[in-house]
Design goal:
Largest sheet of chain B: 7 strands, mixed
Number of strands of chain A: 5
Structural class of chain B: alpha+beta
Shape of chain B: elongated
Helix content of chain A: 40-55%
Oligomer: heterodimer
Structural class of chain A: alpha+beta
CATH architecture of chain A: 2-Layer Sandwich
Radius of gyration of chain B: 69 Å
Largest interface: A-B, 28 and 38 residues
Number of strands of chain B: 53
Helix content of chain B: 25-40%
Strand content of chain A: 15-25%
Order of helices and strands of chain A: EEHEEEHH
Distance between the termini of chain B: 156 Å
Number of domains of chain B: 5
Radius of gyration of chain A: 14 Å
CATH class of chain A: Alpha Beta
Mean pLDDT of chain A: 85
Largest sheet of chain A: 5 strands, antiparallel
Number of helices of chain B: 29
């Protein structure tokens, strides 16, 4: 499904980033980093209009020729970014949403771990597996 | 009308089309009404109710009225909607039944039959009722209604509403207006009905056609044409939304087919779209309908790009009609991405770069189209919508440039040129619409591909525009990414100067936000750039950072590390700039993770060994040999005293947080340094008392400092090209201050990972040392940590020697040898051989020198050595020779001292001590806690390290309290001494002695005959704690006893318990006894009534008192008054006696007191008889007889006779009053007498005085005697006293 999944801290540094084809890892880093522009734009736009009643899912952040970048932001301003291959047209919005939801749940579990220091990069096996599940389905 | 003549379909521009309405019948009539009809029809909107649950719409209807012709009617099978006549109208103004019958009826029926034959049921007959017509043929005038009725009857079979009357259409009357309105309403209603019906039918057909799409032979292009027809009609009706929906449906359907093709389900018709792309001329949005492409679609010869382009151009046109230009840009971007994907999916062979051309041209075309319909301000405000296209175009142009060799330094090769020619060929000719424009996308692309310079111009222009837009809308990350791409372009062009700033900006943002991969990548580019620029130090710094970058492979890291080491290893040439010493930031090379002090407290005395252990996490991939490792220290001598030996505990180990924090979190984002809290005490300067205490944050300036709020928006926007070079970005490393104090270590091998380096810290000068900078030198390269934070300090203190003397056991007892402990803290002073302490002796406290005295030298509790101590005592000075001791050691020894118990009030003349100090008299005072009196003994000690003497005070307690008393028995005198042990220990008392003091006497004589006869036990006596011992002596003298006696009590004592060690100590007690001899004796006798043997209660008895003089007051006795009376020679002294009974046993009747004067010398006795009455029966003690010395008031001024008279008078008077008061008790009387005496005192100017005798002077023989009193005879009352 996804080709890259990233979790970005409130302060915009990466907590977790993993992608499928490892040779393109750098490109995904750049892509995800750039997508933060749109995330911030969307967050501030939403903040203005709706206040706290906001949708966590930000939708398509921006498409590129090869990839589509979707965003999601938790209430604590932790951002999830999922990059999907553009050729993968079978993915519907709903599926992306459910992926984010799954990611969010797993992220919440990680945060609940008393041994995890919030703000540190995520090094959780369970989270890894969830992400792997999302990445693997595309192959 | 004109358009109606032309054949439709050829040039269709839907907007210019209107639904066709045919007009038959009276053409002249129609022409006359046409203008107002065409004007008035669209004036009012009409609600259009739709089928399939679509929302009703208000539409303004227009119509194209054309003359009715047979060929206008649609033939069977044609689906054309645009040319479809929706309504047929027959016009007539016939009012003549004749004419009707002759021509009109026939004409109408012919018209109707032709309509019917084409299945058209939408018709209307309009009968115009014009005034003029009526006037012409007055004869045949029929009522208008009859014609209408006829027509209705003939043609409108049950459809009466199909025939409408228009009255006086050319008149401006209300009637005319009314008929117009009803006509228009009818017209609109019928038109809409026709639309609904015909469109519904069309849609149904279309749907049927669509359902057939799975059948073989179905062609998308055919279907496309059908649905587009519908779209056209909607457009014609100005229902752009609906029109757009048609196109979107087509778009989706097509997309679905492409996707299905990708999934292996290939539709046959799709084959035509898979033909190789031969033309990439881009979108064409300037025409409302691109007939060229439409025709190609119709022919089935369109390529995928043609299809997409045509679809998009239509969508674009409609969206712009809908005033949604920004949706165009979004859809455009989506379309372009999608087309690229679809071509890939369909595996359409495309010339390399052709798509880039197409995308580039399309982007620009869309942007132009948007620009043409929006003003500048709108564009600027919505750049977030267009920037994507700009960036996309930039990207594509760049890749085209790369493809065509326009980016390289050398320029395009022939191969590149061939490719360029091929690409340009695919562009075709410029469209006529843009041929006149100078800035058409076509021209731009052609120009850009034509030369390197033109390419650069266009590329930079686009790039700048896109970056500016990104910046303007706050997408700084995107702008930087684009900038980085521009930098890459510059780099490949060989222009690193331009690239540097762009790379620097991007790098800074990545570093700032902690994206390690981009950081590594950008830094690598940066390194190359710096190398090209010849910035050796910056590039070195970058290399060092890269060498420690874990994102790189070990080989790469080793290579970068090698770069650094090579530079470091280069011999320093003669001032050659190339290999000058480079100062780099430590962060690239190693991280300081911990500083640890040994010993742990980080506080040492001056000169002591102090080691600092640095833990350095070396980031290099291989072991590195550092030539020198130095830590710059700053000495703050002022804090030296404050720190002191027991100064605030400094942390012995400092961990540096930055190193501990996880790698993922960028340093700039961690929430600043943690606050360093400390206690603060504010002591008043005068007495060092605490006036306030609080908590201070020592690094408040760092904690409170405003942080860059992390997000790049707030990062300083340096104008491009003016940004600081990145090499210097993390603050130019500060070189170590020359000449500053340093800890250094040489030739230290640093392995990758944690290294421990132990350095020796200087501790010669006292003060607070702060570790400031750290530098590691590798040949020519110097890695500097400019500021060690949090600050690391250590104290070196210097201490003055200190001498303290403390009692070994509390309390010190006076009179016994006591051990005191001398403690000498040497501090910075080294005790040399021959150094001695000089104690000035005082008389009250001699030092007992004993031979076996040892001194113990220890260092912080641990004994170092013991050595003998020699103590030499002379009269004035005790000298203690100290054994040699190193500085900062403690020297302890014990010494025995004895404090003499002061025996009397003897005062010696002030004398100076040997060392010049004024002798301090031991001060004796009573201790508040214990009953013991205390003596403070001051010692003055001269120390070799100071010119001043040390003054010390020891407090001794006297264990005994001694009291004396004089006892008499007649003339015999006894002296009693009571020794009270107030201490906590038991003593043995021996050799109790009392003697007359041998001091000089007043009369200069000695009374040799005086003898103190001891009545005590001779043996030793035990004197337990808190107990007393009483001793008694009788003083006898051959002559008269002296009136005053000075005595010395002496006793030996020794502690009871370590009996063996203690010798007896002597204890003296001096006291003075005054008025020793007995002067008078009083003897009393109770005489019962005559004839009675015993006294009886209630009856009078006589008390006989005899006062006798035993001895005369001694000469020189300090009884001045008595002496005065003697000197007058007026009958000697007078004595007042008084009988009083305080216990109410007796009632004194008659006089109770009296004055007795006696001769001045010789023995004498006086008998007084006093009547008393016992009040109770039993053995009653005698009433008290008091004898007082009577002293006349003033001998010189008042006559003694008169005085005595007055005295007598007063006494008699007193007695009288006593007699008068019959029932008064003795106590009352006595009180009365006192009163009267007092009154008299008030009355008289000068009064006599009564003085008591001292206890030994009057001896009462009958003291405590008792007499038996019998109860009264009539004893009705029995009194029982229980006491």
């Amino acid at each position: 499904m996804a080709v890259c999944i990233a979790v970005i801290a409130k302060e915009n540094y990466p907590l977790y980033i993993r992608s499928v084809p490892t040779q393109n890892e750098l490109k995904f880093h750049y892509t995800v980093h750039t997508s933060l522009d749109v995330v911030e734009e969307k967050i501030s736009a939403v903040g203005k209009s709706l206040g706290d009643q906001r949708e966590l899912y930000l939708g398509l952040l921006y498409p590129t020729e090869d990839y589509k970048v979707y965003g999601y932001v938790t209430n604590s301003k932790v951002k999830f970014v999922i990059v999907v291959d553009s050729s993968n047209t079978s993915l519907r919005d709903n599926e992306i949403r459910s992926m984010f939801r799954k990611l969010h749940n797993s992220f919440t579990d990680v945060m609940c771990n008393p041994f995890h220091t919030p703000g540190n990069p995520i090094q959780s096996k369970a989270f890894d597996e969830v992400v792997s599940g999302m990445l693997a389905q595309s192959t | 009308m004109d358009s109606a003549e032309e054949k439709p379909a050829a040039v269709i521009y839907a907007m210019e089309n209107k639904p066709i309405v045919t007009c038959a019948g009276d053409q002249a009539l129609f022409t006359s009404l046409y203008t107002s009809l065409a004007q008035q029809l669209p004036r009012e909107p009409m609600e259009w109710r739709r089928t399939y649950g679509r929302a009703p719409k208000m539409i303004h209807l227009e119509a194209n009225f054309v003359q009715f012709k047979e060929e206008l009617l649609p033939k069977d099978g044609t689906k054309a909607l645009l040319t479809f006549p929706f309504l047929h109208i027959y016009w007539t103004d016939c009012c003549d039944s004749e004419a009707y019958r002759s021509s009109v009826k026939e004409d109408v029926s012919r018209w109707q039959s032709s309509l019917r034959s084409h299945g058209s049921a939408d018709w209307l007959i309009i009968v115009v009722d014009g005034g003029d017509a009526r006037k012409k043929n007055k004869s045949n005038i029929l009522p208008r209604s009859s014609i209408v009725d006829k027509i209705r009857g003939d043609f409108c079979n049950k459809q009466n509403d199909r025939c409408v009357v228009l009255s006086d259409p050319l008149k401006d009357s209300s009637r005319s207006q009314e008929s117009w309105n009803s006509l228009l309403l009818k017209l609109r209603t019928l038109l809409l009905m026709s639309f609904t019906k015909n469109l519904g039918r069309f849609e149904d057909d279309m749907r049927t056609l669509r359902e057939k799409r799975t059948q073989p032979g179905w062609s998308f292009c055919e279907y496309f044409m059908v649905q587009e027809e519908l779209a056209f009609v909607f457009e014609m009706l100005q229902q752009f939304e609906d029109a757009l929906v048609q196109y979107d449906e087509l778009d989706a359907l097509f997309t679905q087919y492409v996707l299905n093709f990708g999934a292996g389900d290939a539709a046959k018709w799709l084959g035509s779209f898979c033909s190789p792309v031969l033309n990439w001329s881009g979108l064409l949005l300037r025409r409302p309908i691109d007939m060229e492409k439409r025709n190609a679609i119709q022919r089935g010869s369109a390529s995928l790009l043609d299809m997409r382009s045509y679809l998009f151009s239509r969508q674009c046109t409609l969206l712009i009609f809908l005033q949604r230009p920004w949706e165009v840009t979004h859809r455009a971007l989506e379309l372009l991405h999608n087309c690229v994907q679809e071509l890939r999916l369909l595996e359409v062979p495309v010339l390399e770069g052709a798509l880039d051309c197409w995308v580039f041209l399309s982007c620009l075309e869309v942007l132009h189209r948007i620009e043409s319909c929006c003003d500048r301000a709108q564009l600027a405000a919505n750049s977030s919508h267009t920037v994507g296209l700009w960036a996309y175009a930039t990207d594509k142009l760049k890749s085209l440039g790369q493809l065509c060799g326009l980016v390289s330094r050398t320029g395009p090769t022939s191969e590149d040129l061939n490719r360029t020619v091929d690409l340009l060929a695919g562009l075709g000719d410029e469209r006529p619409e843009t041929a006149s424009s100078l800035q058409s996308p076509y021209k731009k692309l052609k120009e850009a591909l034509s030369s390197v310079e033109a390419f650069e111009r266009h590329y930079l222009e686009l790039c700048q525009a896109a970056m500016e837009m990104y910046r303007a809308i706050g997408r700084l990350r995107s702008a930087r990414l684009l900038g980085k791409s521009l930098a890459e372009y510059y780099m490949s062009k060989g222009e690193p100067e331009q690239a540097e700033a762009l790379l620097a900006e991007a790098l800074r943002s990545y570093v700032c936000e902690g994206w390690s991969f981009p950081v590594t990548h950008t830094r690598k580019q940066m390194g190359e750039c710096q190398k090209l620029l010849g910035r050796s130090v910056d590039s070195l710094q970058t290399s060092a950072l890269l060498a420690g970058d874990t994102n790189l492979t070990t080989e790469e890291r080793t290579r970068f590390c090698g770069d650094v080491l090579n530079y470091a290893g280069e011999p320093v040439e003669q001032g050659g700039a190339a290999s000058a010493k480079a100062s780099l930031d430590m962060g690239a090379f190693a991280r300081l993770t911990r500083i640890r002090f040994r010993p742990d407290g980080a506080t040492v005395h001056s000169g002591a060994a102090l080691q600092v252990e640095l833990t350095l996490r070396c980031l290099m991939p291989a072991a590195v040999r550092a030539d020198e490792l130095a830590v710059g220290i700053h000495l703050d001598a002022e804090h030296a005293s404050k720190g002191g030996a027991q100064g605030r505990g400094l942390p012995g180990t400092v961990d540096f947080e930055a190193a501990v924090s996880p790698a993922g979190r960028p340093a700039s984002l961690s929430a600043g340094p943690p606050p360093e809290m400390d206690e603060a005490h504010d002591r008043s300067p005068s007495d060092d008392s605490l006036s306030s205490a609080g908590v201070v944050c020592k690094n408040a300036h760092l904690v409170i400092r405003r942080h860059d709020s992390g997000s790049p928006q707030d990062a300083p926007r340096t104008p491009r090209g003016h940004a600081a070079p990145i090499g210097a970005a993390p603050a130019t490393p500060v070189a170590l201050k020359e000449g500053a104090r340093m800890l250094t270590g040489r030739r230290i091998a640093l392995e990758p990972g944690d290294n421990s380096v132990v350095l020796t810290a200087p501790s010669d000068e006292p003060g607070t040392y702060t570790l400031r900078q750290l530098s590691v030198t590798l040949g020519n390269v110097n890695f500097v940590l400019p500021h060690i934070y949090p600050s690391v300090q250590y104290h070196v203190y210097s201490q003055e020697p200190q001498l303290t003397v403390q009692p070994l056991a509390e309390p010190l007892l006076a009179g016994l040898p006591q051990t005191v402990k001398f403690t000498l803290l040497t501090g910075h002073y080294a005790v040399r051989k021959g150094d001695a302490l000089q104690l000035s002796n005082s008389d009250g406290m001699p030092v007992l020198a004993n031979a076996g005295c040892t001194a113990r030298i220890s260092n912080s509790g641990a004994a170092v050595s013991e050595s003998a101590l020699s103590v030499q005592s002379s009269d004035k000075v005790t000298s203690i020779s100290l054994p040699p001791a190193p500085p900062y050691h403690a020297l302890e020894f014990h010494l025995e001292v004895l404090c003499l118990i002061p025996s009397g009030p003897e005062r010696t003349a002030d004398e100076r001590l040997t060392n010049g100090e004024v002798r301090h008299r031991p001060r004796s005072y009573s201790h508040p806690d214990t009953a013991m009196s205390a003596i403070d003994q001051k010692m003055s000690i001269d120390c070799p390290w100071s010119i001043y003497s040390t003054l010390l005070t020891l407090t001794f307690h006297i264990p005994f309290k001694t009291e004396h008393s004089l006892l008499s028995a007649g003339n015999r005198k006894f002296i009693r001494v009571c020794v009270h042990n107030v201490s906590d220990s038991d003593f043995t008392l021996a050799h109790v002695k009392l003697a007359e003091k041998n001091g000089p006497r007043q009369d200069g004589r000695r009374r040799a005959s005086l003898e103190m006869r001891s009545l005590n036990a001779t043996a030793e006596q035990l004197l337990c704690s808190k107990r007393s011992v009483h001793c008694l002596w009788e003083a006898t003298c051959k002559e008269d006893l002296p009136s005053s006696l000075e005595c010395v009590f002496s006793a030996s004592f020794c502690p009871r318990r370590p009996r063996h060690a203690a010798a007896f100590q002597l204890f003296h007690y001096n006291f003075l006894l005054d008025k020793v001899p007995t002067l008078y004796s009083v003897r009393a006798n109770m005489l019962p009534l005559a004839g009675e043997r015993h006294c009886r209660s209630g009856s009078l008895c006589g008390l006989e008192v005899v006062i006798a003089r035993l001895a005369e007051p001694a000469e020189g006795q300090p009884d001045v008054d008595g002496g005065g009376t003697d000197a007058d020679g007026l009958g000697g002294s007078k004595v007042l006696y008084e009988v009083a009974d305080s216990s109410s046993n007796w009632a004194v009747c008659g006089r109770s007191s009296g004055l007795v004067s006696m001769p001045s010398s010789g023995s004498w006795a006086h008998k007084v008889h006093i009547e008393v009455m016992p009040l109770f029966a039993g053995h009653l003690p005698f009433p008290k007889i008091k004898v007082l010395k009577y002293l006349p008031h003033n001998v010189n001024t008042i006559q003694p006779d008169a005085d005595s008279q007055v005295e007598n008078d007063s006494l008699s008077l007193l007695d009288k009053t006593l007699d008068d008061a019959t029932a008064d008790t003795a106590s009352v009387r006595s009180r009365g007498s006192v009163q009267s005496l007092g009154e008299q005192q008030h009355r008289g100017v000068a009064l006599p005085r009564l003085d008591p005798f001292s206890p030994g002077q009057v001896f009462n023989h009958s003291h405590a005697r008792q007499v038996l009193v019998l109860p009264a005879n009539d004893d009705h009352i029995v009194e029982v006293h229980a006491t």
